[in-house]
Please model this.
Amino acid sequence: MKKQSDERNITMMMDLYELTMANGYFLQENQGERVAFDVFFRRNPDGGGFSVFAGLEQIIEYIENMHFAEEDIDYLRGLNLFDDRFLEYLKEFRFHGDVYAFPEGTVMYPNEPVITVVAGLVEAQIVETEILAQINHQSLIATKARRIVRAAKGRPVSDFGARRAHNNDAAIYGARAAVIGGVNGTATVSAGQYFNIPVGGTMAHSWVMYYKDELTAFRKFAQIYPHNCVLLVDTYDVLDSGIPNAVKVFREMRDAGIRSRNFGIRIDSGDLAYLTKKSRAMLDDAGFPDAKIVISNSLDEYTITSILHQGGEVSSFGVGERLITSRSEPVFGAVYKLCAVEENGEWKPRIKLSETVEKITNPGLKDVYRVYSSNGEAVADLITLAGEEVDFSQPYQFVDPEKPWKKRKFENCTIRKLQKPVILGGKRCEPPVPTMDIAAYVKRQMRREVWEEEQRFENPHRHYLDFSPAYYQMKMKMLGEPAKE
Model:
């Protein structure tokens, strides 16, 4: 399969401070000391109850293929910021560390480590920007797509967003993320080529405007695409000309013995609830109850919900700018924070303190588990010390960090460890997972694991992130005795 990583080297996609810090570590001769960084986020976008993890495959590709070309070294030398010894080191640079992550497509929640990088200090530092760029973009779009798909109530949704995306990469990777989130396909051809995802589209207003009249335009289109004949009916007037002309063409196709597998109309403007109801009645009265009605035009989960609440007759949705840009909340907010440093063969936790309580980090190497009730629903996530024994064969006591005084136990529950190694010694552990398989994984979680109450758009149920007693005690000790020197 064609990959963008085969066509260009994006190793230099990093903030300058990654390199200035790396240069400093190198000159202090501690670049090989191993550290651990966690990637997590603090809040679900749009006030939602969950997020969808996307972008992992591109992170793995980036890390595996990192190398500084001669022109990169020449550019960095020209900045007059870096020691020549450091630049010589970069000439031979390769990532040799380990990366642990949730499976891509996993439903995730705030403040849990979705990715953990364990590597030498320089190596761990300079991968930060690309990791955050990928997870922040693709997870944002995948999460937005999931909300839009839920609003559609089982009707197909397609990504129509490329021309309103922020650039080419945003369109291509946004389409991938949208499919992971649940849309049925994309109009972006290169995304279909790169990721083997379904592509589709209808017709443009320019097609209708080019011909002398609307009916001629529809006939020409039907001749060329009889089995994908979705006609754009709002160029002039939906009800007075668009639908009547579409009906004429559908009758001509039927009289010619053409039984189209996919035919109907698309409306891209106007009062969509009203127009779809009137169009449905007109199509049904003309003998075409199977004709589809596709709508587009600045749709999102809220407009779709409103249209369907008003009784809009819609077969499928084409969603563009408000999906591909996540217009309602265009920032995801994942961060990359140091959590542990190896000293004399032993891992020592590190914690970031803040006057803002939400910005205090969860220190140390840790394991993350998803806890399931007896009926298979995910009731909470659990953070423990790395390697800590967790026994769920009997009631398991845990600590709710927001209400630590309460005695809480999980009973009749099972657990699943969420992080797994995806890169060891700089090499990926498993082959890429097909995008459509990741999308299927998301759908399974939505049906079987994620509470309906968490999927509400307004005031969703908060998914709990609990601590083992040992982990809670370690964090409280660090809060009481922070390193200040």
